[in-house]
Amino acid sequence: MTQTGNGGPSPSPTFGDRLSTAVAERESQIVLGIDPDPAKLWPAAIDRTSEARARLALTFSDAEEAAGEQPPRPGVVARLETAAAVLAHCRAMIDAVAPAVVAVKPQLACFERLGAPGWLALEHITSYAREQGLLVLADGKRGDVPVTAAAYGQALVASTPSPFGHVDGLGADAFTANPLLGRDSLEPLVQAAREHGAGVFVLVRTSNPGAADILDAQLATGERLWEHLARLVDELGQAGPAGLKDIGAVTGATEPEHLQRLRELMPHTPFLLPGIGAQGGDIASVAPAFAPGRAAGLVTASRSIANAHEATGATPSDAARAEAERLREQAWGLA
């Protein structure tokens, strides 16, 4: 809580307000997708692995010492080494593009596959991105029965009470969620996020080709499933003074013909727009997303930024910065 002019408490900013402020301050709607492939890391970043290894090793050894564990097994050492290289790569990407983006979107599976060292790398990356003034959108597409959904919310944004004190979660500013288990699976996620000024981006009409198999299905009411989900997201969201709601929607940029209808159904909902670049989406086609204002549309790009050097011949960091800046200028000019 903050203080009002008369000394009384005032509500903390909602995620919609925080997002609006961040976009205005950084003059960017671009989100850097972070989905590192250990086989395709930037060479210069690998050269900096020793520094990252030291960061992870210190955290990892402290945890093992507290648990009374023996020295790490060979498999754990390999994971730790890989996670250190991934951490160095991700820090290098953030250093390269931070001035041109408003947020990062780490894909949780890319870190979870590395076990405990991977999650530690994710925690370091989350902290580092926030030190650079960036929002962190955790892309895990969580969704389950209410008791499990509550645990997911604690893991990502909140904290878990225990006899030894509260255990902090990842500290993300928002995360993605799968709504196909229904409203009661979303409500604990929304509650956990809202209590910490965080947001939730609910899958509504995704960018992958197979989305049509399910999300385009026609219901008995005559509407398509994604239209029904859009209504649900609109109902769940709450707007702050800036007018933007705290519950957003994932609306793929590869199907721009749906955006006008989605905006009609969710007039004040922030849209997370994956599919630009490597998936074939085009920024010019997503203009309807920005109808409520610049912060109402977040354009995500990952491979097109991380791999930009493959087409240009520039260094990975220079090419990534140039591509992020190009996308920033395009998106900013639409709103």
Examine the coordinates and then state which fold CATH places here, giving the name of the CATH topology: TIM Barrel
Largest sheet: 8 strands, parallel, barrel
Q: What would you call the shape?
A: globular
The percentage of residues in β strands lies in 5-15%
Number of domains: 1
Full CATH superfamily name: Aldolase class I
Describe the structure.
The protein is α/β, with parallel strands linked by helices and 335 residues long. The chain has a single domain (11-38, 99-334), classed as Alpha-Beta Barrel (TIM Barrel), CATH 3.20.20. It is 46% helix and 15% strand. The protein contains 14 helices and twelve strands. The chain has helices spanning 15-26, 43-46, 49-67, 74-97, 108-112, 115-131, 146-156, 183-195, 211-214, 225-236, 259-265, 303-306, 309-312, 316-334; strands spanning 2-3, 9-10, 30-34, 103-106, 135-142, 159-160, 167-168, 174-177, 199-205, 247-251, 271-273, 297-301. The strands form three sheets. It has an eight-stranded parallel β-barrel, surrounded by seven helices. Strands 1-2 form a two-stranded antiparallel ribbon. Strands 6-7 form a two-stranded antiparallel sheet. Strand 10, helix 11 and strand 11 form a beta-alpha-beta unit. Helix 4 (74-97) crosses helix 14. It is globular. The relative contact order is 0.14.
